[in-house]
């Protein structure tokens, strides 16, 4: 079964004023891509210190950016516990009277041009890479085989931001892939593939496209499909399948399914995503986990030269 959400929208971009030769090279541009194929929001009503949201994590995340003021950077991490964790580790080291106390956050790589054009980390099933030059950056993260409940076979994330000085075109591209996601025997998803890209050239419209493809989805071992209204039959669904009963069984197991629509902004687009909610009773309340599968983002902003 595949659910595909795609859109291609053109909106006016800021045009360059007619001017001297080479003005396209000095025009303002900013291209950014971000991919987090599995984002996990963790809540715990019984948390003793900070009730509510406790953690946002990603199994594999990539970022890439390039702009007209000389920034070109790539970033890849997996697993990643949000921007606050590396920042807090760095801040803690900064206040230490005898220098660094904590090691750097170990599961990430960064590239930047100039200075650090390439970074790679390979450790078992994890591959992280980032590359940067004066005209763009790209990043790749792949994490394989995470056992547990939920579990997955592999996650891949790629981001790329490029500027072509010859034409003035800027492009941001983000892709994500999730293979073999499961919540015990209750829910399995064969594959999720997501994509977002945005491109712009001064004086021409912004072009963007995004898509989400969901492969085979089974509930209690029964092949089903998913729409914005809930479970639905697909080719291969048994004629005797009771979708209302399967929905109730999911709910009884503390699991919910939903589609998160794609979102557009003036400068970019976010892909649609599949949302899996998990609720578990814990001492003092409930633990809630919201897993967002497939969301990737792309942004491009252009305009006249900035003073």
Describe the structure.
The chain is mainly β. It has one domain. 8% of the residues lie in helices and 56% in strands. It contains three helices and 23 strands. It has helices at 23-26, 84-94, 243-252, and strands spanning 7-11, 28-35, 38-44, 52-58, 61-67, 72-77, 108-112, 118-123, 126-133, 136-146, 152-164, 169-183, 187-200, 206-214, 217-219, 222-227, 230-232, 255-260, 263-265, 268-270, 273-282, 285-293, 296-303. Strands 1, 8, 9, 10, 11, 12, 13, 14, 15, 16 and 17 form an eleven-stranded antiparallel beta sheet that branches. It has a seven-stranded antiparallel beta sheet with strand order 7-6-5-2-23-20-19, with no helix packed on it. The N and C termini lie far apart (52 Å). The model is unreliable at 1-25, 47-53 and 85-103 (pLDDT under 50).
Relevant terms:
307 residues; mainly beta; 11-stranded antiparallel sheet; globular; disordered N terminus
